[in-house]
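Input/output pair, single chain:
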Amino acid sequence: MADRRINEQRNRLLACMSRADLALLQPFFEPVVLRFRQRLESRTQKVKTAYFIQRGLGSVVAVNNGRQTEIAIVGWEGMTGLPVVMQVEGEGQCIAADNLRRAMKQSTTLSAFLLRYAHVFFVQVGHAALANAQGKIEERLARCT
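Output:
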C-alpha cells in the first residue's frame, strides 16, 4: 500500500494508481471541460482519446434502429474508452489513446489495473442491460440515485 497514491486526483481511478503508473500518464494529460451532451466517442470511429472524468457523468448509449438506451454510466470513479455522451457537465483529464496504449505496454501493473476497471465496467453494463430489459421503472431509476 505504500506505493499507492493518496493524492489530489479527483478521479478515483487515477487516485488509486501506483505512483509509477500515474507518472507514466501525467505528462500526457490535458485538462478538459466536458459539456452537456458532448459526444466523447462514437461507435463508428476509432477511439482517439480516453477521458478520466473528475466531475460530471457520462453515459454509454446503445443505438438500434434509431432507438437509444443507456447501458452504463461513467463518473469520477472511472474512464472512457467506449462511446460516451456527457449527461452532466464536468471536468476531467484526457490522454491520447496512443499515449495510453504506449504506457500500458511499458507497465504490466498499469495494464492489469485498467483491465480490472474494464471488467468492473462490463459487469455494470450487464446489470444495466438486465435492469433495462426486465426491471420496472422504479427499479431502473434506483440505480441512478
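Residues 1-7 have pLDDT under 50 and may be disordered. Residues 108-134 form the longest helix (27 residues).
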